[in-house]
Amino acid sequence: MLVSQKMNPKIQKVNLQNLDDLKVTFPASNPFENLEYFHAMESSDSASEKSGWIPNHLGELNNDTLNSFLPLYKKFNSYGEFIFDQQWAHALQQTGRDYYPKLLTAIPFTPCEGERILAPNDKKKILLIESCIELMQEDKIESWHILFPNSVGKKILRDQNFIERFNYRFVWHNNDFQDFDEFLAIFTSRQRATIRKERKSIEKADIEFKSRSFDEINSNDWDIFYNFYRQTYFERGQNPYLTKEFFYKINTANHILKPVIFFAYHQEEVIASSLCFEGKDTLYGRHWGALKKVKNLHFECCYYQGIEYCIKNGIDYFDPGVQGEHKIRRGFQPKLDSSFHYFLKNDFGDAVSNFCKSEKKQIENYIEACKSYTPFNKDYKIK
């Protein structure tokens, strides 16, 4: 391990290639905070130097025991982040300064909220923050970006004077529903009828679903799923973010990462599939694809199957991914989320801060507009 001459000597660069040799002392609140997930990303070349994600992780390592961990990537673009800072890059480059490379703390291609600075206490988290800033100064990197931290992480970053940029997502809340019909009772009568009609259309098309939990999924399931996953990107004229090898790597850690796959069958042929990961209290929707275009299949595969799974298994929340106003009509509630940004020089940092304050007002107005559009009956209160 190489230690920066300027960083705190407790903090080292962490290489995840030899994952089996590391013992971890901090808990993971969702599947994506496990080192096995990062390792699958990097060892499969989904998030590696070849794909523009240069691992630069920091942590407190003592005799192969990892006491803290800061996921950190050096990036020369903003590909696969779901936070759009290209205007910032253009603005800084117009002044003759370099926006890239930048430092990024995020779960690659995974816009889900969670812990981003992984440590057992605030003291160790602040040590990681200070060490990263020292690394920025040493390498003359202008900016550091931390995407989608949870409420615990947000408080620490606010206390450390990071700039907060607000965004939004739509999340389903399980109000101790006993079944799908009880969930439907929160809607207006018109929207209940609409959802029932959408689901009935799938039934009439002779499509049925089967789910595979983490202890059932095998490599053949991943082969089938990957065909659907890459089809989604091919239809957009893009290459998929994730390689097939990534899903094989996930398969070796299914018991830790807890994937759930929903398969749609038509006359015993699999025609579509969606992938989720199960956390402690949240089901995270990640990817989907279909080889046949069937009306309402996306809603059933990506939303209704996940909702039923949460009700059946007592899961509190279903986060199907960022953005997408169509989720409102299907029971997903708008909520604020945010990213945090640190700039070495105050001139550009102040400009970004002013921009984010103005943007926040627009985001808050948008969320209030979404709440008024949500088709719940008047007795149901949005949380």
Sum this structure up briefly.
With about 375 residues, the chain is of the alpha+beta class.
Categorize the overall geometry.
globular
Structural class: alpha+beta
Indicate the CATH topology of the largest domain: Aminopeptidase
CATH architecture of the largest domain: 3-Layer(aba) Sandwich
Helix content: 25-40%
User: Which homologous superfamily in CATH is the superfamily of the largest domain?
Assistant: Gcn5-related N-acetyltransferase (GNAT)
Strand content: 15-25%
Total number of helices = 11
The average pLDDT score comes to 93
| CATH class categorisation of the largest domain | Alpha Beta
The strand line-up of the biggest sheet is 3-6-7-8-15-9-14-13-12-11-10
Report the biggest beta sheet as strand number plus sense, adding barrel if it closes: 11 strands, mixed
Task: Find the count of extended strands (DSSP E, 2+ residues).
Answer: 15
Compute the CA-based radius of gyration: 22 Å
Number of domains: 2
Low-confidence stretches: 1-5
Please trace the helix and strand order, writing H or E for each element.
Answer: EEHEEEEHEHEHEHHEHHHEEEHEEH
Give the distance, in angstroms, between the N- and C-terminal Cα atoms. Answer: 47 Å
